[in-house]
Design goal:
heterodimer; A: Cytochrome-c3 Hydrogenase, chain B; four-stranded mixed sheet; four-stranded antiparallel sheet; 15 strands; 12% strand; globular; B: alpha/beta; Rossmann fold; 5 strands
Chain lengths: 508, 159
């Protein structure tokens, strides 16, 4: 048995950006995605901050953190109810004694939790829009700060929106307990104790999810490579006043790092390479993104050379081991959060390192890691909102250096997302984006090493090859992002629509 | 309130006509009682923008085989598509958002929904509209302002 993942769409934004104004990335990259445009903006602004050596006032760092975290807070319930949980109502599981309850809660439209989960998901991005003007596709973060001048009522409105999220969905529906009670859990045995501690825990959506996964086997499926990458996100407002590539790791709140299954390593962007041996791009290069090239081939021609996807294969050069495929995403972040030795301002959270060691990674564990971030980010955003000093600056005009190199990264809900920018003569000389989906869904490399999702699918038992719901669970647990690049309506033909032609003649 | 939402991807040439039309309407100055929204490539967020609208207008690019720049004015019900399958959120588009909203908003669903589709010439990666689509956008922008302006006037919003 074997597995190949294929990304069927070419995304040419690196080509679009070449030769453009340095700040074009702030406009272009948030348009890459309709789901995590705020994350694209966040890392693209840090790429420029590092290239231009700007000063970013603490308020701006706080607002950027708040915005990035709110996008993820939005994504957590929306992804769970509108995407992932629908698969759990598949008739394959009808023999589970929990099936009826799962359908009662999570069936699309009719489920009792579906509506509250999906509707509440729209709230956190209202906070984004208070500061960012709009969500999706805002460009309000600029080198040297943010383009907004919030008032006290903006802060209090944001706090009340966040409280609505907690009191409407997070605590009563999802956790069945307080945010603080859930965050007391530091190990898998704590989680099992929590589950039986009170009927509210056992019967919450989270309680049901854990019990159902263990009943239908999602705790045994889709382990993946067991090696993880987090590039980290959220900066300490004082420690990243002068953003540099070298100073990044120490200023992070949600840490960067690599876990190879045995040991932790510091993350160093210089160790990232992209392999295109099996991708629809010219040649077989294995370059660092500063040197990266994007020369697309006709897929039909490329397939004759053994290439099979539009995704490149990002690899991390692990000291002593060599280029390694790594899983990105919430599980990776939460495993890295368990690394000892965090600074006082950094997140230390041993729960998922323990879970991975106790029961191994799986679809269930990956989903739990994502959901675990809702209470964590709720608390962070609340803190950051209270730290904003309305009498201080939100922007310091930078000097626009004509030459330079920058690196900006963040953690989108679905994983590590980074930009590398090279400026020359005041224009973009090179721009490379590596998305979490590329890390996860990328193909084999020159050494024949599979990408993480390819690995995760190997060995999965499939009940009905016509309807491989098991593979869907695995792919969805990584929440890959592939299809939102073209949006044009194409479901009806001209013949069907001709009677609606607007105005005389229709065409100009 | 009339809500006008432009959908599409600015990075795929004519696919960006929806968001660009919103920008153009902003420059031209929308009358009171009209809310403009750049829906971009987000799907479900289009659904949340609709709440509170008495009338909804959606603008997107299309490819139906007609001549580039052809504008279609289609009643929303014609295109509404329930998102009932397990669906990737990236696949969730305004045609799903309409059905989703009819369920979600119930009697707060807009009384009138109109979709304007502009036939694209190219959806290649890149920025900027092709000339036929640019012209169609300008024509539609002025027509929309005329219509919603007249409506706003009739409602007395200018007072």
């Amino acid at each position: 048995m074997d597995a190949w993942t294929q990304a069927t769409m070419f995304r040419g934004f690196e080509i679009i950006l070449k030769g453009k104004d340095p700040q074009a990335g702030l406009i272009v990259t948030p348009r890459i995605c309709g789901i995590c445009g705020g994350s694209h903006l966040y890392k693209s602004v840090y790429a420029l901050d590092t290239a231009w050596r700007t000063e970013v006032p603490p308020n701006a760092t706080l607002i950027r953190n708040i915005a990035q975290a709110c996008e993820s807070l939005q994504s957590i319930p929306r992804w769970f109810y509108a995407l992932f949980a629908i698969g759990l109502t598949h008739k394959k599981y009808r023999h589970s004694h929990l099936y009826e309850e799962v359908c009662r809660r999570w069936a699309p439209f009719t489920g009792t939790s579906y509506e509250v989960g999906v509707v509440t998901s729209s709230k956190p991005v209202e906070i984004y829009a208070i500061f960012g003007g709009q969500w999706p596709h805002s460009s309000f973060m600029v080198p040297g700060g943010v383009m907004c001048g919030p008032t006290l009522s903006d802060i209090t409105r944001s706090i009340s929106i966040l409280e609505y999220y907690r009191t409407t969905w997070l605590e009563p529906v999802w956790l069945g307990c307080s945010v603080d009670r859930w965050l007391e859990n530091k190990s898998w045995s704590d989680v099992l104790k929590w589950l039986d501690e009170k009927p509210e825990h056992f019967n919450s959506d989270l309680g049901l999810f854990i019990r159902y996964c263990m009943d239908i086997g999602l705790d045994k499926m889709g382990a993946g490579p067991g090696k993880y990458l987090a590039m980290g996100t959220y900066f300490h407002p004082e420690k990243y006043r002068f953003p540099t590539i070298e100073g990044r790791n120490g200023a992070l709140i949600s840490r960067a790092g690599v876990y190879d299954g045995q040991e932790f390593h510091d993350f160093d962007q210089a160790r990232v390479r992209e392999d295109i041996t099996h991708s629809y791009f010219r040649g077989e290069s294995f370059l660092h993104p500063f040197e990266g090239v994007t020369e697309p081939l006709d897929p039909a021609e490329a397939e004759k050379q053994g290439k099979y996807t539009w995704a490149k294969a990002p690899r991390y050069d692990l000291p002593g081991i060599g280029p390694t495929p790594l899983e990105a995403g919430p599980l990776a972040r939460q495993v890295v959060a368990g690394r000892p030795g965090a600074e006082p301002w950094q997140d230390y959270d041993p729960l998922f390192l323990n879970i991975v060691k106790e029961i191994g990674p799986s679809v269930m564990v990956r989903v739990l890691a994502r959901m675990h971030e809702a209470p964590k980010y709720y608390k962070r955003v609340m803190e950051w909102l209270k730290q904003v000093d309305l009498d201080e600056k939100f922007y310091i005009k930078p000097r626009e250096l004509p030459e330079g190199r920058g690196f900006g990264a963040t953690e989108a809900a679905r994983g590590a997302l980074a930009d590398w920018i090279v400026l020359k003569d005041g224009k973009i000389e090179n721009y490379q984006v590596i998305t979490p989906t590329a890390w996860n869904i990328g193909p084999r490399d020159r050494f024949g090493q599979r990408g993480p999702i390819e690995t995760a699918m190997i060995g999965t038992e499939i009940e009905n090859p016509e309807d491989p719901v098991e593979l869907a669970h695995i792919a969805q647990s990584y929440d890959s992002c592939l299809v939102c690049t073209v949006h044009a309506y194409d479901a009806k033909t001209h013949k069907e629509l001709a009677r609606f032609t607007f105005g005389p003649g229709g065409t100009l | 309130m009339v809500v006008i939402i432009g959908c599409g991807n600015l990075l795929r040439r004519d696919d960006g006509v929806g968001p660009l039309l919103i920008r153009r309407l902003w420059e031209l100055g929308p009358p009171p009682g009209v809310r403009l929204a750049d829906g971009g490539t987000a799907g479900m967020d289009v659904a949340f923008q609709i709440d509170g609208a008495a009338e909804l207008i959606i603008v997107d690019a299309c490819r139906t085989g007609a001549a580039p720049g052809t504008i279609f004015e289609v009643p929303g019900e014609e295109l509404e598509t329930p998102p009932l399958q397990a669906m990737n959120l990236h696949d969730f588009r305004w045609q799903h958002a309409l059905a989703f909203d009819r369920w979600l908003l119930k009697d707060r669903f807009p009384k009138k929904v109109t979709v304007f589709l502009i036939e694209a010439e190219t959806l290649e990666p890149g920025i900027g509209l092709s000339p036929a689509v640019e012209k169609a956008m300008e024509r539609l922008a002025r027509e929309l302002l005329r219509r919603v302006g007249a409506d706003a006037h009739a409602r007395g919003d200018h007072a």
